[in-house]
């Protein structure tokens, strides 16, 4: 009988009787950056799905695997440092362990930082659930010059300990064998927070052996990347490279998809009949408006996955935290805000990395104020018509205005509706070369989530838009869309816009580029119906008003209906007030 059988043979037999059930549920629990994603990839061979925990927007990974003919369901819980229900991640993890009662816990530990990880381990012992310690990244620990006595650690905690290097598949077969054996109910060690901290420190001193203290590559890289003078410029440079990769490199594919769907839509729509019009202008254009975003989203998540899995992203987040905290945000907020300059849809989705729910919501709400590339055609059209001599200055003003409104709004939200203080704790992982398969799997699951959540909404709204522009007449002025434009025009009369400008704004709800397309379809000479200050007010309004349908769909998927409605009302109010002020100041100066 192996040693692990000796210290808790009864618990193993109890678990084996559970194997008669249809499947075994295993929870992966650990600190952030311990390699749980790599582990679930290795255990399931990428056979996992990404969704949300019921009632919240926190990402949930769930995968299935057959181990010796037995179905095992793995649930990857959010990365946490403790099980005290102070944050939404901690509450989700604690509730899952109490209510769902998994058959086994895989407590994933980063071998390079045993002491910090052990505090969570000691908290897990209180649940009385069979457990296996997965000592991950042992190769990185050896490179740092120390080793962990896994047998001693197993004896102290009373549970099996398996060494792994998950991103290389090392130790996975042994771990699968231990999973089939069922784990062991751990010893309960320590009652209070203070006791558990002291015990964790004692265990770490007892089982960690320093073989040879070495200056490793991670420490050398941090001398540069974390430098107080060079750190932030390097981070911003890398983010710019991500921006270029996400939008410029992907642009030829985006253009090809856009032209393809436009061509197919035109061919189908050219045939007589409402069915052809519905399919061409509604369904094909609707699906096309979703798939046109796909290259940007895929490239974005490839770049972010590489930065995350390499260990650099947590360092960039740490560097920016001091600046962002002055506006009630965290360092993690900087990535979505930067991505917002390209497209607000993937930017909203990128907020998933923000652990604090209130900061995440604040970031989601202000991200649409970043001037996305879809607004650029509007700026170009109006600058060329009204401000040809100072075009670059006006363009820069628009981008800076979006940043100012976003940061001021974030500060207001964090002082009012999203008030609260967030503790920001971060462990910096070791640098490593990302596994290509892991990058691709992580990217695919995120892209698939976008297609499932945002795509359906966009398709429905595109069909609705087709209907109101097509009936009761195909002429825009006589269609329901034209009627709506005339009906709401009085609301914008204080700013001096007629129904054609109002109609263009309404069409911009679908996508901001449609504003220019609508003006072109109506053959409107904007220089004859607007003053320069009315034109500037229009540009400001299109910068700040209701996000496009795709962005609203992403906000709904990430934050829920209530915050989507709030985003619509707040952004529209801010846009109207600033546009009115600009028009009024202009009329005084004229």
Summarize, please.
This protein has helices at about 5, 10-20, 35-45, 90-100, 115-125, 140-145, 150-155, 170-180, 195-205, 215-225, 230-250, 250-270, 275-290, 295-310, 315-325, 335-340, 345-350, 355-365, 375-385, 390-415, 435-470, 480-490, 500-505, 515-520, 525-530, 530-545, 550-560, 560-590; strands at about 25-30, 50, 60-65, 70-75, 105-110, 130-135, 145-150, 160-165, 210. The protein is α/β, with parallel strands linked by helices and about 600 residues long.
Structural class: alpha/beta
Apparent shape? elongated
- Number of helical elements: 28
Question: Total domains, how many?
Answer: 2
Helix content: 55-70%
Question: What is the spatial order of strands in the main beta sheet?
Answer: 2-3-4-1-5-6-8
Tell me which oligomeric state these chains represent. Answer: single chain
Our measurement of the CA-to-CA distance between the termini, rounded to an integer number of angstroms, reads: 93 Å
Rg over C-alpha atoms, rounded to the nearest angstrom? 28 Å
User: Residue-averaged pLDDT, rounded?
Assistant: 82
Ranges where pLDDT stays below 50 over 5 or more residues in a row are 1-19
Number of strands: 9
% residues in beta strands = 5-15%
Largest sheet: 7 strands, mixed
């Amino acid at each position: 009988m192996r040693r692990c059988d000796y210290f808790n043979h009864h618990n193993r037999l109890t678990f084996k009787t559970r194997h008669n059930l249809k499947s075994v549920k295993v929870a992966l629990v650990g600190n952030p950056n311990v390699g749980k994603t790599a582990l679930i990839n290795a255990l399931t061979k990428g056979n996992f799905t990404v969704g949300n925990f019921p009632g919240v927007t926190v990402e949930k990974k769930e995968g299935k695997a057959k181990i010796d003919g037995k179905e095992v369901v793995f649930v990857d819980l959010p990365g946490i440092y403790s099980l005290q229900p102070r944050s939404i991640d901690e509450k989700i993890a604690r509730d899952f362990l109490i209510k769902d009662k998994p058959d086994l816990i895989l407590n994933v530990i980063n071998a390079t930082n045993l002491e910090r990880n052990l505090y969570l381990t000691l908290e897990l012992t209180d649940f009385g659930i069979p457990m296996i310690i997965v000592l991950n990244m042992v190769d990185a620990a050896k490179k740092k010059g120390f080793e962990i006595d896994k047998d001693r650690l197993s004896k102290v905690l009373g549970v099996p300990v398996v060494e792994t290097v998950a991103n290389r598949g090392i130790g996975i077969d042994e771990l699968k064998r231990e999973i089939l054996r069922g784990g062991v109910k751990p010893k309960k060690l320590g009652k209070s927070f203070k006791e558990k901290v002291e015990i964790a420190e004692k265990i770490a001193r007892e089982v960690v052996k320093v073989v040879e203290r070495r200056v490793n590559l991670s420490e050398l890289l941090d001398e540069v990347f974390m430098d107080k003078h060079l750190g932030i410029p390097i981070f911003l440079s890398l983010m710019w490279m991500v921006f270029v990769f996400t939008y410029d490199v992907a642009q030829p594919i985006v253009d090809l998809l856009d032209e393809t769907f436009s061509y197919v839509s035109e061919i189908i729509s050219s045939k007589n009949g409402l069915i052809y019009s519905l399919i061409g202008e509604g369904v094909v254009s609707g699906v096309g408006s979703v798939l046109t975003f796909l290259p940007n989203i895929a490239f974005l998540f490839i770049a972010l996955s590489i930065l995350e899995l390499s260990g650099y992203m947590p360092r960039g987040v740490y560097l920016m935290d001091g600046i962002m905290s002055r506006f009630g945000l965290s360092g993690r907020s900087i990535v979505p805000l930067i991505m917002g300059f390209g497209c607000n849809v993937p930017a909203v989705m990128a907020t998933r990395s923000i652990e604090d729910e209130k900061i995440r919501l604040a970031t989601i709400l202000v991200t649409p104020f970043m001037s996305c590339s879809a607004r650029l055609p509007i700026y170009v059209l109006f600058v060329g018509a009204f401000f040809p001599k100072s075009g670059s200055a006006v363009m820069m003003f628009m981008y800076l205005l979006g940043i100012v409104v976003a940061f001021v709004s974030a500060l207001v939200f964090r002082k009012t509706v999203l008030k609260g203080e967030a503790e920001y704790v971060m462990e910096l992982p070791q640098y490593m070369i990302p596994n290509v398969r892991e990058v691709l799997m992580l990217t695919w699951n995120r892209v698939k989530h976008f297609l499932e959540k945002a795509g359906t909404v966009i398709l429905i709204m595109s069909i609705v838009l087709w209907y109101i522009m097509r009936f009761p007449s195909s002429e825009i002025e006589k269609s329901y869309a034209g009627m709506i434009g005339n009906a709401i025009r009085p609301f914008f009369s204080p700013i001096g816009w007629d129904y054609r400008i109002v109609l263009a704004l309404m069409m911009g709800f679908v996508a901001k580029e449609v504003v220019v397309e609508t003006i072109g379809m109506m053959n409107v000479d904007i220089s004859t119906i607007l003053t320069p200050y009315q034109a500037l007010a229009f540009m400001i309004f299109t910068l700040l008003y209701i996000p496009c349908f795709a962005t609203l769909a992403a906000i709904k998927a990430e934050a829920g209906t209530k915050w989507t409605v709030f985003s619509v009302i707040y952004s529209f109010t801010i846009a109207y007030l600033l546009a009115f002020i600009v028009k009024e100041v202009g009329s005084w100066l004229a």
